[in-house]
Specification:
With about 120 residues, this protein is an all-alpha fold. It has five helices and no strands. The N terminus is likely disordered.
Length: about 120
C-alpha cells in the first residue's frame, strides 16, 4: 500500500479521477480544410522542414483558424512525420496506382461516349 500512495502522490490523477497518468491529457488536433491545404502545399515544397520553419508554420496555421485550438510546432512535426510515412507505405502506393488507373480508364470511357454522341 505504501507504493500505491507514493505513485498517487507522484503521478497526477487522470482528468476523470480514475487511474494514473504520467502525462497531462492531450487533445487531438483537428485540422481545418484550410490548414490541411496549407500543410499539403508546404509538404510539396519541402518534405523535411527545419524546426524553426515548423514553428513558423504553426504560427501561420494558428492565424488561419483563430477560433480553434492553436497547433504547436510539435503538432506540425507529427503531421509531417505521418505524411512522409503515408507517402512511403507500399500498400498506399499500390492503392494510389489503382485509383489512378481507374480514373484514367473512366476518363477514356467518358471521352468515347462524348465522341459517339
Amino acid at each position: 500500500m505504501i507504493v500505491v500512495g507514493i505513485l498517487q502522490s507522484y503521478f497526477p490523477q487522470h482528468h476523470s479521477g480514475v487511474g494514473f497518468s504520467p502525462r497531462p491529457f492531450r487533445h487531438r488536433v483537428l485540422w481545418s480544410h484550410e490548414q490541411l491545404m496549407q500543410l499539403e502545399s508546404w509538404y510539396a515544397a519541402d518534405r523535411y522542414p527545419s524546426g524553426q520553419t515548423m514553428h513558423q508554420y504553426a504560427e501561420a496555421l494558428a492565424s488561419l483558424n483563430p477560433n480553434s485550438y492553436s497547433p504547436t510546432r510539435q503538432n506540425v512535426d507529427y503531421w509531417f512525420q505521418n505524411r512522409r510515412r503515408r507517402d512511403s507505405h507500399p500498400e498506399v502506393m499500390q492503392q494510389r496506382e489503382k485509383k489512378k488507373m481507374a480514373r484514367t480508364l473512366w476518363g477514356q470511357i467518358m471521352d468515347q461516349r462524348m465522341t459517339l454522341s
